Every structure is written in structure tokens, then in C-alpha cells.
Amino acid sequence: MPMTVETSQEAEQGHRPKGHSMKSNKGVPRVTKGDHSAENSKAGAVQIVKFEPEAAYFAKWQVSSSDWMLLLVVTVVALIVRCYQLGVPANVVFDEVHFGKFAGRYLNQTYFFDLHPPLAKMMFALAGKLAGYDGVFDFKSIGLDYRAAGVPYVGMRLMPAVLGALTVPLTYATSRACGYKPDTSLMASLLVCMENGLVTQSRLMLLDSPLVFFTVATVFSWTMFWTLQDKPFYAKWWLWLMMTGAMMGCAMSCKWVALFLIPLIGLSTIHDLWDKIADRSLPFSGWMLHFGARALALIVLPLAVYIGWFWLHFNVLYKHGPDAIALTPEFQAALDGGPQITTSRDVFYGSEIRMRTTNARSGYLHSHLHPWKHKEGSGQQQVTIYSFADANNLWTIEPAYNKTIDQSNGPVPVRNGDVLRLKHKATGRYLHSHNKRPALSSDKHKFEISAYGFANFTGDSNDNFRLEILDSSEPNLQAINSKFRLIHTNLNCAVYNSRKKLPKWAFGQIEVNCMHNCMPRMSTWHIEHARHPNITAESAPAVSYKPLSFLGKVWEYNRLMAESNENLKGDHPFAARPQAWPWLRRGTAYWGGYGRVIYQLGNPLVWWGALASLAVFGLLWFTLAVLDKRRIFLQLGGLPETSTSPLPSQPQLFLLDPIDVADPWQYELVESYQLLATFIAGKSQMELHDALQHKASESMHSHSELVKGLVYGILTNPNDAGMFFRYLNIVSRDGFAYTLSRLQLVVTSHKFARIRPEVCTQLFWILNELINAHGLDQIVLSLTRQVRSGDISHGNVKLCWLMLQFLQKHYDWMVQFPVLIATAAYMFGRLALDHSRIPDLRLQESEFVVRLFRERFSECSMVGRDLVRMLQDIARIPVVTDLWTDILKQPQSISPRFTGIDQLLYTPTPRMFLANRITYDMEHRLLFILEQLPVNMYSRNLMWFVQQYLSTPEAETLFSDLIRYIVCVFHPSNAVLASNIVPRYVFLGGLLRFIRSQVVAANAKLALFYDWLFYNPQSDNIMNIEPGVLIIAQSVDKYAFMTASFIEFLAFVSDAYSPAQAPAIRQAVGTAMQDAVDKGVVSSLMPIYEHPRIEVSIRQNLYYLFPQLVPPVVVPPTVSDEPAKADDTELHITPPSSPEISSNPVQQPQPITPAIPIALDPVSRMFQDELVNSTESDIYTGGLPEDVALQADTDATKLSLEQALRDAGELPSFVDQAQSAEPDIAQISNLASEIVDICAQSDTPIPAAARILSVMFCESLEMEDIETNAELKATGEDNDALEHDVLHHVINAAAKYTDHSSAQKIYSLLVHLTEHKLDVGFRWLLFSVVDKQQPWLYTQYVDQYATGTLSAALVRDLSTMQERFPGLFYTVLPQIYAAFTDAFVGCHGIVKSVLALIDQPQVYRLNTLILRGKLQLIGYQAASIAAIIDMALDCDAFEQ
């Protein structure tokens, strides 16, 4: 089969399938050897298998002239084979003895009974009538001469012969309609024509030939019906469907063995209707029409045909005959000449009765003077069932043993529940049972029934039987009407008709015994004759049998047929057993005479050929099954040897780089897709349909393999997605649960940001197809997390569009899931803030959010207070403005249950909504830092995280989402809190340093403290407050300006967020801090309040916010002239009452004007109009502003300098200059240069000079945040480099003395500065290798260490450079390698630094350098390679 390969670019040009129906093309994989040009073989090109359509289930057979010719030929041949010498033998053969006789009964209209339905026998009667048969010949025994009796037997045999001959052309037509070629169909018809068994049956008056004809006609009609599946409800479609039902009814009317057509046609119909359920182009009403048509044609019509032949049967046979005795009296009463029995209705004690079994083939309870003669018998008088009425069937009803009945007032009726005895009238003995086994059974639950008694014997308790009348509201026993059971009182067994014939010593009558737990229908009796000696027949009410209705006769006849077939036992002596049929070891002897024998035996060519084919098939099936388990697949009729397989060897869901490793589940999908393509290759649609069903039903593993392959095909092959989805409907056994689990892996993948565009489109296509699958809402919820905030890249915007369109299209489905509604409202509202440059998308998002709020506010309100924060950000969008105004002023217009915005603000936001705005990949990396990295190792990972996700201007809005996630979602365990893992407040402090916008900084602080503003201990979690408390308390020693900034922000936002409700907000903020102190988050606020770097204004704000935790400030606060007034857009908040928060007005000092200017620290763009158009050119890094730096604590510095002066000889003047001069960067830089000069030119103690320099740099100017000149130059920001890098002056001053006699002093000074935690080492390394290109300068610096090697120094300095300035690190790496090759190659520490923050651009750069020979990391020694690989696997980096 040829194979077609097309690239991903070509595949994307195709159209996505839009549905499927029975009319759509179905196909199997067709692969042609395509173009394998260099362009198509580029990395990233997706190879797709094209599945081209082939034949449908059944071909539309267009009968050609050659078909007509072949049909004529096979028909003529079949007639010759079956009709040649049809009159031989001229004797009764085999079952002609029965069916010929039955044909005669039809002709003389005398009733008979047979265990087969009537159609075939009536056809024989019709053939006999047409041939001149008069019905007199009785077919009494095999071998009778037809010619002597003048029977037209040839005409009667002609009917089955013609039907047998017509079976042959029907076989040809069926094969052709199934799509087989003429030669194959001809071979099939000739095999049927020459099959000896069929030929033998066709030449005799047997039921098998009509049965086979109607069976083949049924299959042919059903096949023709399937060829018209593309034209439902057309005339021909109805014709063949009705023909199928009619032929099936006729087949079942011949012999019940045709009932096997029901599973054949029935299962095929169920399969067809099941497939149509998955046809989304077919409405439910259309499906119901298909169901109704099939129910009418395949259920109602066959049943009507079956009953119709019985109607004809009963109308023809209306006369009573000898065979009718096997029927119930009610049935016989409906026949002409049948017995008409009339008797007294009421039964009394003393009545003479004749009792008979109620079921068909019934008889009378009978006894005679002959004893039981079986081995375990009692020898008492026999009691049996006899078919004919005589004097030995009469019994008299008497009271129970030792009980008398008062009949002085007249005869006493027998009633339900009475205990009575039956006395045999002819012998005077009582019906009796005892613990003896019956004649024909040794079962312990069966007992002998006898007649027992003798002269002057009054009986015993074993004669007592209890009367149980069944299904009657009349309590008195009545003849004919009452159906009853007789229960032996001692043995608790019922008098039972065993239907077994007794031996000759019992005259072959039917056994009756007493049985425990027997079937009611075989132990039910009724009274046919009743007469009381004291009541005349004329005075007693009479009763007689009611003739059965037509349907009653049908039911009775079929029940009797079932019983007769059930009771068939034994085989005639010339029959062949089934185990001998395949081998043809023995046939069936039909007739023998005149030296000739009719012996039915199959054709060896047909039977042995079929047997060999089955054996080969079974062997192949077993072999392929074993190979399948061992993952070995053979191409049987599939791909040609010369073709190149286009199946993907690597997962093609995501745009992965060559070094990326796909997840194991992706490889499983690819492997399953390969197996699927191999499995369905070369199969027709009919074969494929059945094969998929069978494969899916083998085991859960087979089912999952098929599902995975089909899901991968749908996602990666848009052109054939419709076909794959149809197959998915066929194989799914769990309501698509496993399908959804595979899709869940895709949508929660950490690599989802790199999903291929066509895969993303197909993902939403299959979600549309599975819209009613249980659990789809969880897939959609997971998918909403992959729409990244702060990202307007093409792929993310497309994903946002697709998600919005999907939810709009399936809005009615979405509203069933409250969490999905709330998530969609919060997500699209949050994304609308990012899409200001995409107005169309922003408008649709806003309209969708407004619609959800207007129509589903109760579900949206689940989000809680962060919903308000989101709405504030987008309230200026015109579509949202009216909604925001209604929320503030007319809450009842939104929802009758919405009382106001305070209802939202005092509802904490559940974690799932805040986590929704963080992608799975982002969350994974964030948790890695917060759960595994110690505090001294997190900074470089944080820098990588910021570069990866927060480096673009659009991503700045993501800062607030990250802070809300860390504060409200990630709550560390006690084990993490007790370890050295980086605390949340430390991480948040580091994250805030990267914010470069005033507006973003204000929103980030609001996100940090948002829960404070509405804190309620009963509903809020203290863990949401803890990071803000700790970042205020723990920053005061080293970063007092940050503590001051946060306190001023809290004071400002408490008043400005909603001026009208400022006291309530301040109270909530105070309660939050009080709760934190009470629960031990911090012990007290006094260390902050009393800290020397905290100004008076900050202390005033502390008291203003937390008067219960700090004392009042001595300096009175500045009070504003006028209190703030609320405008029309204020938030009106009513805090819920709680024990901790009083609902009474709070007496607080007048609001203090915050010290932070509004322009530098905006709270909300909602309330500060002037900030909407403000520029964001000013960079806010969260570091030390210049004005704060100039206010450093000089007292501590002065103390350190005086201590250093005691150890310095020649430096007093420079120390005085440093203390008296205004400490700007330029002066300190000059001072540092002069200190280096003096150290080189005098005997100044090196440790003292290093101490002074460290105090100047570290304690005064916080130099750990100042960039190097080289880093500024590398990033293009080298303007005023000397002004920003004081250590640069130290390096330049030291460089002047590298060739001087004082070089050792300079190296010693550099070493001491390194020991004082100044980053001198990597600067000197850069100076030596990059600036001067004299590596020996760095080597001499390293030699000053008492211990350590060059490799250890390189590890230390390169690690510092990599952590502080990763861009510079990867730039200078080749030069350092060239300078120190021996120490560089194979150094574990250097490799670890290289891997620590490596990302994709650096990977490409390193690959290029290594391939060009400009860099070598590991070396070629196996031990080194193994050790470094082990080390790399334990590193803490992300992209190792």
C-alpha cells in the first residue's frame, strides 16, 4: 500500500474536520512514498500519516452483465445437481415418514402436533396439493413404495430441491454485495452448490432445505440493506430492511434453529445504532427514526410473520384428531369434534371426582390393583397418571384422618387450606405417601405415592394432604375453575407429575411422586369431574372448559413445542455425533434398499478445506497475539518494503529543542500511535470496525493503547481527526474517562507554553467533540491555568482566543459548573488588563466578564475579595464601567442577594482562584525554590525566574499574581518553617527588588497587604498575614528603609482605599497585627518602634495603625486641615462583627498624612486619576534611594573607624577627611584610591586599611548592590560607570603596582578585602584576563592564600560572578578557559556554576563554543565524566 508523507507546513494548510456522519468518507492508513527533500527533513517538521478513504462497510453492488451470466450459470448447475433423478428412490426416506404424513393431515384438515413450527410443512402440503396428492397415504414407515400407492412424491420433493438450488445464486449475490470480486463469489457459490450434505437434504421432503433458503435470504437482504446506508429511508432502503424481517420470520417459522439469526442481525443492529450515537451530524430525532425503523422491521415484522403462519395453521387444521389428546382440554375444546365436558361446579366432602394434571400432555390421577415392584418400593398399590378416563380414575374426598365433618345441614364444601384424604373408589384404599423412594428416582427429596389400606382399616396420618388453591379469589374448591396443589402434611411434599414413563410392570403409564420444592406447573391439578351422591346434576351449577383464543392457542402450542424439544432424548442408531462432523468420520444413514444406500456425508473438499483454513487462521491469530505482547509487529498486507515509515519517532506535541527530553507519557502516546497505524493498516472498514471492537475488549491494556494512539492522532493529524474520533467512539468503554486522563496530561504539562499551534487547535476541537463527557470541566479548568498573565505573545493570545470562543460557544454547558464560571470571570477580567494593545480581544473578554456578572453573579462571588481588586484594575474599560457603578451604588440590580461590595471584600479568596493565574510550569519552579533551596542559594534561582517570566514590560502585572500566590496559596509546612529553606518574606523581598515601575510597585504592595485591610480572625488565615508581618519586622536592621516604606504604605492605604470606611479598615489592619503578635509570628513591634533608623514619622504611623501595640509618640502628629471626603466611586464597607473586631465606632486619632508622596506610591489607579496617564520612566528597584543613603548612621561608622585608627600609622588625615566630608560616592572613591596608594608606598598595616575600606564600602554604601563596570558595559549601560562602581577605583589603583616592588602588599590588600566579604576576586580575575590579558596577575593574587588551589579560587570567583552577573559570566567563560585550561577542564565546581542558571540561549552559545574548540568543560577521562554526571544530577538548577 503506498505511503504519503507531508510536512507540518503542508498539514497546516488543510482544513480541520467539522463533523462526521455515515455519509462521510471512512478510511484506513494509506502511505505513499513521498518527497524527502532537505526542506522536509528539517528539525521540527512534523511527519503525518495520511489516512485516505477506502471502501465502506459494504460496496454498492452494481449488477453487471457478467454477474447476470454467472447467476444464471450457478442456478442452472444447482438445479441440475439437485433435480437429477429426483424420483430415486421411490420409497419413503428418513423423516419423510413424518413430514409427508403432516402434509396429508393439512390436506384432510385433521389436527396434529409436531415439535416444529408449521411453515415448511404447509409448503410440503401445498406442493403435494399442486402435484395431486390426496392425503390418504399415511407415510407409516420408512421404505414404503410411493409408486404402488400412487403418491406424486417427485412433485413434493421438487419444492425443497428448488429452494436448495436458489440458495446457490443467493450465496453469490451476498458475496458480491459484501464487496468481494466475482471470482471469489463464484467460488463461494460453487462450494455451496457441491456440498453433499446440502444436496442430500434438498432432494428429500425435509425441513432443512426451506430453513437454509430463508436463512440465506435473510443474510442477503441484510447485506443489501447495508449497501444503502448512505440513502436512509429511501424506498429500496425500506424494501431490503423489511425483506430482512420477513425472511427472518419465515426462517423461524420453519425450525427454531433459525433463532440464531436473532443474535446475528440483532448484534449487528445494536452495533450500527451505537455508531450512530457518535454521529454528531445526526440529530437525536434522526437517531430515533433509525431505531424505530429497525424495531418495526426486525422485531415487529418477524413476530407478525411468525404468528401469521400459525393463524393459517389453525384455520386449516380445525378438526379434532388423535394427536390432539396431547393438548390441554381448553385447546381441544376449540377444535371441531373435540370433547365438550360439563360437570358440577362445586366440590363437597363426599364428592366423587376425577382429577387431572393441568399442564399439556396431561392425564388423570389413576390407581389399580398392582403393587410397586421396584427395589426400594413399599409393595403397596400403584398410583400413576393415565391418559384416558376410566373407572380407576375416580376418587372420593374425605376428611382428614381422625377428623369428622358435620353434614347434618347438607354437604360441606371443600375449602382452601383444608386437610383431606382421597379414597380410591374402585379399591377403597387411600392416597398415601411415606419415606420410600419412587420407582424412577433415588433423590432424597422425592417420595413414593401409593394407595394404602385394607378391610376395617381407617387409615393413618400419611393419608393426609393439604389443599392449596392457586391464583383464585374463590376460597371453595370448584371443578375445572380451581387450580390447586396437594401437599403431604407429614413430608411437606407436593403430588408431582414427573412426566417419566414407568416400566412394563406398571403398563408404561406416567409416574407420579411426592416432591419437595417442585415446579408449580408440574404439581398443579384440577378436577374435571365432580358428583355428590346427595345432589342431583340438574340442581347443581354446571361448569365446562372455555375454548382458547387464537393467541392462547399460539402460546399453548409454542409452550408444548418447547417442552417436547426439551424432552427429546437419545439418537437414532444411524445418526452421526457432532464431534465426527468436521472429520467426516461418520455420516447419517437415510435409507437403504435394493442394494443402494442414501448416506449423508459432507464434501471432503469443502469440509476439510474449511477446517484447514480455520486451523491456519487460529495459528496466525495466536502467533500475532504472542508477537503483539512482545511488541513485535509484522506488516501483513500493510506497508511495502520499499517505503519509508513516516510515523514519528519523537513526540510532536510541543516545540522541543534537541536537548529537551519529552515526558514518558509523550513517548507512550507516540508508541501507541505507531501500533495503531500498524494495527489498522491494510484492513477494510468492516474488518477494521470489528478489529477495533475486539481489540478494545481484550483487556484494559489493549483499550488504553488504542485510546492513546487515537488521541495522539487527533492532536497531531488535523485532516484525519474526524475519522480518529469515530474510531475513538468505537473503542471507548469507559465514557471517555481514559481519553480525558490523557488530555489532562497535555493540558497540565510544564511544556504547554511550547505547544504546537496545530496541536492547540486540535485540542480545542476534541474538547468540542467531548463536550458532554463527564469530567470535561476539570480539563477546561486546568487549561485556563495555561493562559498566562502578562504575556501577549502570539501563542498565548491565540490560546486566550480559543478559550474564550470555546466558553462562549458552550455557555449553556459551562453554567452547570459554578467553579468554572467563577474561574472564567476572574481569569478573563485579569487578562483584559494585559490586552490593552489588542482591543478586539479585550472588548470580547470584558463583555464576557460582564455577562457572567450579570447572569451568574452568585457563582462569580465565590472568588471573594480579589474579585474587587480585579474589577478596580479594569473599571476604566467602558464596557465594565457601568457594571462597576452598579456594584457600588445599585448592588440589588446585580443580584437580589447581593447586599453590597463589603459582601465580597469580607470573603477571603479561595486558593484555587489565585493559583489559576500561575501556570503549572511557573508553579513547579516557584515551589522548587520555596521548598528545597536554602536561604543562601535562592538568589540566583530567583534571578533566573525573573529573567524567564518577568523580563518583559507586559509581564510586570504578573508580580501581583505571584505575590498573591505566595501569600495566600503557598503555606509552608512546619518542617519547611523549621529548616533553613528560604522563607516566604525573604523571597518576596528579593522579588520586590526587580520591580521597575511605581504603579507596579504600589499594586505589588497592595497584593501583599490586601488581606490585612479586611482581616477577620474567624474567616481569614493568619498565614496570609505572616509574610507581611515578617517582611516589616525582619528588614528593619539591614533594610530599615523597606520597613519604613511598608509602614507608610499601610498608613496611606488604610485611609485612601476607602476614606469613608477608613476607621473600619484601620481596625482590621490592627486586628491582623494583633493576631500575628498573639500567635507568635512576631513577639512585639517595639524593636521596630525603638530602632534608631526609624524616624519619628514612621513611629507616628505605627501608633496610628497599632495603638494597642506601641506607645504614643512624644512629637504630636501633623493633622490635616480637613477630613477626607468620599467621592461617588468610594468603596462603602461594612465589616462583619466579631469578638475581636468591635462594631462600635472606633475612637482613633485624626488621619495622619502619609509621608510617602502619592506619585511615588500609588495605591490604586481606580482612585488616583492622575496616575492613569503617568509615565513609568523612573526606575524603582526597591534598593537604597540616595536621600536615604546619605542619612546613614554615622555613629556606628565612626566607632569602627576609630577602632581601625588604633591599628593604622599613616592614615589619620584620610580618616578625618572621610568623617568630616559629605559622604558622596565620588569623594569615597578618591579616598579609597589614596588608601591603596598609601598601602603600596608605606608600611601601613594592611589589615587596618582593609578594615577601613570594608567599613566604607559595606556599612556605609551597601555596596553589594552596585554593578561592576564590566557588567554595565556588557549590558550597554556604561554611562557614568565610574560613578557607580567604587571598587573599580580600588582595582585601578592596585593595578598601578603590579610591576612594582610593592606588588606583594597590593595582593595582600586584595586578599584581606576578599576576607571582608568584598567581591574583589572576580573583579581582579576580569581585570587580569579580560582587561590586561595577563593571567599571571590573578595567579599571584591566588598565591597569597595560605591554602587553596587555582581551581578552588576559580570556582569561588566564577560562582560569585555567575550568581551576580550571569550574562557577563557566560560571555567571559571562553577567555578564562583559554587562560587557565588545566585548572578549568574537569573542575566540578566550574561545571556546576555553568549548569546552575543555564537557559536555552546559553545552551546554544555553549554548544557553539564547544564545537569550535573554544571551550571544554569535562575532558575525556571516563572517571571525570562519570563523576561530573553524578554531580550534575544532584545540582539544584532547573535546566541541567
What percent of residues adopt helix (DSSP H or I)? 40-55%
Largest sheet: 6 strands, antiparallel
Report Rg: 51 Å
Task: Please count the beta strands (DSSP E, at least 2 residues each).
Answer: 20
What is the number of helical segments per DSSP (H or I, 4+ residues)? 60
Low-confidence stretches: 1-59, 636-646, 1117-1223, 1259-1284, 1436-1440
Q: Distance N terminus to C terminus?
A: 45 Å
Going across the biggest sheet, name each strand in turn: 14-13-10-9-6-17
Mean pLDDT: 79
Please state the structural category.
alpha+beta
Overall 3D shape: elongated
Strand content: 5-15%
Question: Could you explain the architecture of this structure?
Answer:
- With about 1450 residues, the protein is an alpha+beta fold.
- Helix content is about 50%, strand content about 5%.
- It is built from 60 helices and 20 strands.
- The strands form six sheets. Strands 14-13-10-9-6-17 form a six-stranded antiparallel β-sheet, with no helix packed on it.
- It starts with a strand and ends in a 7-residue tail after the last helix.
- About 40% of the residues are buried.
- Residues about 1-60, about 635-645, about 1115-1225, about 1260-1285 and about 1435-1440 have low confidence and may be disordered.
Brief account:
The protein is α+β, with helices and mostly antiparallel strands. 50% of the residues lie in helices and 7% in strands.
